[in-house]
Amino acid sequence: MKYTNQNGRSMVEMLGVLAIIGVLSVGGIAGYSKAMNKFKINKTTDQVSVLVANLRTMFAAQGNYEGLDEAQAINFGVVPDDMIKSGEVKEGDTPIKNAFGGDVTIKASPLSDSETSGAFTIVYKSLSQEACVTLATGDWGSGQSSGLIAIGAGVIDDLDDAVVGGEGTTAGKDTGVIAQPGGENVKIPMPVSEAVTACAAQSPSVLWKYY
Question: Which long-range contacts (CB under 8 A, 24 or more apart) does 139-146 make?
Fold first, then answer.
């Protein structure tokens, strides 16, 4: 009787192969997540730049932003189509979303104590921490021609208080930071250390205020 040798993989070899596949899969998922986050950050940067340019151009002749809100911005065609929520929007909901799935609000904002609509604010909510830091510390314009009044990050409801004084405010636990061109406390571009502290909050926001 003849016996033939049968070549096969041992259990140890199979476990080794599965371990390698697992490591490659984890690495691939991590790399994909990092790439997607970078893509969303770049997309957000482009969106904000377009919104600011379109709004300033649209209202230039009027001289103020009276009546500006999300619905009006959509009607004027200044909001990219991929930012507009599909389907029926319930009353009270924000009809614009950002690349991270959070709400985007746009509204007229006071430029001084004596008037109510000489500027506008754009708020991107529910960002990742990396996105919050990257956007808050970006170069959004420090010269007078840019129209930038202030930029905030973290837990901030509004930038209207940043109009008076022009000092900027530093970040603390569960609070936000506001930077302003030539600010006495926090200048633009916002220091990374300040942004990291502010963006450590859960679902942080970034806010821009322009005239």
Answer: 139/189, 140/48, 140/188, 140/189, 140/208, 142/181, 142/182, 142/188, 142/189, 143/181, 144/181, 146/210
